[in-house]
Amino acid sequence: MGDYKNLSSEDAVSKLKKLAEDIRVCMFCTDLTHTPFSTRPMSVQEVDESGNIWFLSGADSDKNFEIKQDENVQLLFAKNSSSEYLNVYGKAFIYKDKSTIEDKWSPVAKAWFSKGKDDPNVTVIRVQPEYVYYWDTKSGKMVSLLKIAVGAIIGKPLDDGIEGKLSV
What we know:
Blueprint: E1 3-4, E2 7-8, H1 9-23, E3 25-30, E4 38-43, E5 46-47, E6 53-58, H2 62-69, E7 72-79, E8 84-95, H3 98-104, E9 122-137, H4 141-154, E10 161-167
Parallel strand pairs: 1-10, 2-10
Antiparallel strand pairs: 3-4, 3-7, 5-6, 6-9, 7-8, 8-9, 9-10
Organism: Flavobacterium microcysteis
Protein name: General stress protein
InterPro entries: Split_barrel_FMN-bd, Stress-Dev_Protein, YdaG_split_barrel_FMN-bd
């Protein structure tokens, strides 16, 4: 069902950027060696030209504490309305310097940090992807569900989705 299309280099970063910045909110998972692992919704600030995914976070959060213990994280993105999904596994790095905070700050962040950019609790997290996999259904969920149903009736898959590994 669907096609496989692995992407690398600029194509992979472009696809990662498009999906992550469009979906915007992911489930940010830490403490992956224990079950259940810790997870919470996080909003992407940006995906840079190297494929790093940037977030703002509180220095006193469980997430930051867990990253200091184990930098391995998993990000799970889903946009049901267009059947686009993204799975990112990588290493997380925490920044507290003013220039990085200034660079990654957005006005929306003030909702979480009442003192703004100068709030001593503000940190920036950079996730450097090591493994990325995507699912992208070209024609959207309703058309795809119809094609899957027709395919089941006639015994032949008709889905036009694409999935594959992104090597960033």
